[in-house]
Amino acid sequence: MFLQRGADYHAMICRLPQNVVMLTGYQPILCNSFCIVTLTAGKEVEVGVAVPEDEVDLVPPGPAVEVKTYSEETMDYIGNTIQSVRETLAELLRSANINENAMIGYEGVYSPIASAYTQVGAPGPATLALYSQLFLGGYLRDVTPMLDELAAVKTEQEIEAIKRAEGAAYLGFIAARESIAVGSSEVEVAAQTYAALLRAGYAEPGAKHVLPHVHVMAGKRAALAYGAFNLTSNATINEGDTVTVQMEVDSNGYWAELTRTFFAGTISDEWRRAHEACVQAQDAALQSIRDGESARNVDGAARGVMEKAGFGSAFKHGLGHGFGFQAINHAAVPVLHPASKDILRSGMVHNMEPAVYLEDKGGIRLNDNVVVREDGNEVLSSMIPRDLDWLVVKG
Fold first, then answer.
1. Tens digits of residue pLDDT in 163-210
2. pLDDT recorded at residue 1
3. Cis ω before 334 (30° cut-off from 0)
4. What residues contact residue 351 under an 8 Å CB cut-off, 6+ apart?
């Protein structure tokens, strides 16, 4: 914990939901929860949280030693988050003995927000103004780099939580495969997959909140799947089409992010070669992934395979990025990319997604999830087949 390394800090306060999950194991639904981390006189970490009254039952026992609630609306009062949480946060600060002129770490740099609902609260100028008023002339310092460092290496408990999301994803891909047929549509495949992910996610023991996302792009549209986001359409799936199914699965705030590309009815020789190149690129990367290895070298091992197979220019993005508290943040450490300066460390969790995108033809991506170990790696998504006997759908 950074408070133990940085003696200048008296406390840290977080509102971004992925950081609250990391520090407490509690996933905010509306993202209007606050987490205050302090050290006791004995240098023990203590965590207090201020949560909306409706979410208090979601806070697990253990990490948070003090949980206080607030309400934005009662039959006598209506306000907003900043107005309503002020006194609750003040109580937590008094309890933690945070006095005047304290040095406080806060989230100051832009970060993608791991949404858990149809709309979520986000830190802004009003949140920073609230901190300034509450901390009685204290000093606020951005600790985003320290939070990013903490998020990059997962504990075994966090890895197990990610594995639960991986298990749901496996059943989602089975549903996707069963729904793909010549004449069906992207949206039909997405709908069946989404329903299966919800069922599978909530079947996991302890699942309180499951939020899957599914994106299906077939035929020529799959050639565009290298973009910053993928979107399903009502396009019809034709004979020989590549059908790229990307999913992100959130279970209690822990994410898996995976892709498989299926082939409708038949597969051409060109796509067969492209698929084999992606498999070999993954295998080459896995030979390199271990504690202490350069992320750039891992990307290079996979990229070299793609170039040798003649698909170098069609592999249009980096090999992978970190995930777990978020699904898709291309800057999340470790970044596996030709320009990366990251070094892999045991406990880091990242994806590896070699791909081939051919304009006006289609695209394929093979995206699996890996945890770095001291002597190698562990593929968290190994239960999901990647062979053509499974990916070519004859229905």
1. 999 999 999 999 999 999 999 999 999 999 999 999 999 999 899 999
2. 47
3. yes
4. 257, 258, 320, 321, 323, 367, 368, 369, 370
Q: How far apart are the first and last CA of the chain?
A: 52
Q: Facing residues of 392 across strands?
A: 263
Residue 141 pairs in a beta bridge with 105
Looking from the CA of 189 toward its CB, the CA atoms found within 13 Å total 35
Burial of 178 (0-12, 13-18, 19+ CB in 10 A): middle
Give the tens place of pLDDT for each residue, 319-348.
999 999 999 999 999 999 999 999 999 999
Residues 246 and 254: their CA atoms lie apart, in Å, by: 17
The strands making up 376-379's β-sheet, listed across from edge to edge, are: 349-352, 368-373, 376-379
Q: What is the mean pLDDT of residues 300-325?
A: 98
Range in 140-149, 229-238, 248-257, 259-268 the model is least confident about: 140-149
Structure tokens at 281: 């690129």
Alpha-helical (H) ranges within the chain are 2-5, 17-24, 81-95, 125-134, 144-152, 156-179, 186-203, 269-288, 295-308, 388-391
Question: Tokens in use for 374?
Answer: 């001291």
Helices 81-95 + 125-134 axis angle, to 10: 30
* Type and span of the H or E element at 138: none
